């Protein structure tokens, strides 16, 4: 599977001026992935059957093939093989008839932002913290020339490649690295997405500067984050956990995030959406059977987290590099 993808990746990069990213998807780099249990995931990927989808629809539910493309035994085996990749946090997908109802209804976030984006047609796109690539696939379906996701969490990197296995030749790739691991000088993209990442960073300002360095002049940043109410300058630093997450460092107010973006030199800032996350969008499912939003909120008062912080709201801000 990777042999075909690697060849295609080389060809795709040639037309984009992003050749410096070649070493991140090659046999040697895959052989030495140290994070997570890569040998385990590599074996699960190798077991996936060679099925050819009769149709592909990348809309709210990413639909790859039909149940009629396989026999009953193949269908039941494939369902088990996809289950081996649990937890499916991002989706939904329908793969040869198997509905993967993910924890997050990512289609809802995409619906909130797609109309506001600079058209992606013909653009190169970087999707920082892409998870299993649900949004990367939506970006390509919106016309992007090439989408590169960065996902250091190897189980989600593997999940992307489980889906991508059924889409040979598709110009979307996820690399198993962080934004900080990209080589200097940073490659330049037309659009850069950072969705759900900044509050996980110990240095949000450095994160914004690195995102800016990955944009060409005039390029567009899509910044999506958890926010809490508060004036410009305020950000919440949880004592330990925030909404059960132990890796949250700073949760800004929207005005603070705008101020951070301005001080980092972004212009043309636009808040395109702000909303409170509900259990319609983030919930326990058969494909993500562990704790979800409900367990992170106070049972008596859903406006507070179980640590007694304000419940998560999410904002989407667009900005440009001058
Ligand atoms: C909350 S998920 C968001 C996934 C997706 N972008 C979305 O909006 O649903 C954040 C992802 O960012 C990844 N991540 C965290 N720090 C990162 C970094 N420095 N560079 C790239 N990805 C990172 C995590 O592994 C995780 O999968």
Write the layout of secondary structure elements.
Elements: H1 2-14, H2 27-31, H3 38-47, E1 56-58, E2 62-64, H4 72-83, E3 93-95, E4 98-100, H5 106-113, E5 124-128, H6 134-141, E6 146-150, H7 154-164, E7 172-175, E8 189-195, H8 204-213, E9 215-227, E10 235-236, E11 251-252, H9 254-263, E12 267-276, H10 293-296, E13 313-320
Parallel strand pairs: 2-3, 5-6, 5-8, 6-7, 8-9
Antiparallel strand pairs: 1-2, 3-4, 9-13, 10-11, 12-13
Bound molecules: S-adenosylmethionine.
Give a summary of the structure in a few sentences.
The protein has 322 residues and is α/β, with parallel strands linked by helices. It has 10 helices and 13 strands. Helix 3 (38-47) packs parallel to helix 7.
Provide an overview of this structure:
It is a single chain. The protein is an alpha/beta fold. It has one domain: Vaccinia Virus protein VP39 (Rossmann fold, 3-Layer(aba) Sandwich). Helices cover 28% and strands 21% of the residues. It contains 10 helices and 13 strands. It starts with a helix and ends with a strand. The mean pLDDT is 96. The protein binds S-adenosylmethionine. S-adenosylmethionine binds next to loops. The site of S-adenosylmethionine has 19 residues, from loops.
């Amino acid at each position: 599977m990777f042999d075909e993808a690697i060849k295609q990746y080389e060809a795709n990069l040639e037309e984009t001026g992003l050749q410096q990213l070649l070493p991140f998807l090659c046999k040697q780099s895959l052989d030495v992935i140290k994070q997570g249990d890569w040998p385990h995931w590599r074996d699960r990927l190798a077991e996936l059957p060679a099925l050819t989808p009769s149709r592909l629809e990348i809309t709210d539910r990413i639909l790859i093939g039909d149940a009629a493309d396989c026999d009953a035994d193949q269908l039941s085996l494939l369902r088990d093989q996809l289950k081996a990749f649990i937890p499916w946090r991002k989706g939904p997908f329908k793969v040869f008839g198997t509905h993967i109802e993910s924890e997050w209804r990512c289609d809802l976030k995409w619906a909130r932002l797609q109309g506001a984006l600079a058209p992606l047609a013909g653009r190169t796109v970087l999707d920082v913290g892409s998870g299993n690539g649900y949004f990367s696939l939506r970006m390509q379906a919106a016309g992007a020339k090439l989408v590169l996701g960065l996902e250091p969490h190897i189980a989600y990197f593997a999940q992307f490649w489980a889906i991508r296995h059924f889409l040979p030749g598709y110009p979307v790739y996820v690399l198993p690295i962080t934004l900080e691991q990209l080589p200097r000088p940073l490659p330049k993209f037309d659009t850069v997405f950072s969705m759900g990442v900044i509050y996980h960073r110990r240095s949000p300002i450095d994160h914004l500067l690195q995102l800016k360095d990955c944009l060409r002049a005039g390029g567009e940043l899509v910044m999506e984050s958890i926010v809490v109410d508060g004036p410009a300058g305020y950000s919440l630093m949880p004592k330990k956990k925030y909404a059960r997450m132990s890796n949250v460092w700073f949760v800004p107010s929207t005005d603070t995030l705008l101020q951070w973006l301005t001080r980092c030199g972004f212009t043309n800032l636009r808040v395109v959406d702000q909303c409170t996350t509900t259990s319609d969008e983030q919930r326990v499912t058969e494909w993500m059977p562990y704790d979800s939003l409900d367990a992170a909120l106070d049972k008596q008062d859903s406006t507070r987290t179980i640590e007694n912080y304000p419940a998560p709201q999410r904002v989407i801000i667009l900005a440009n590099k001058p």
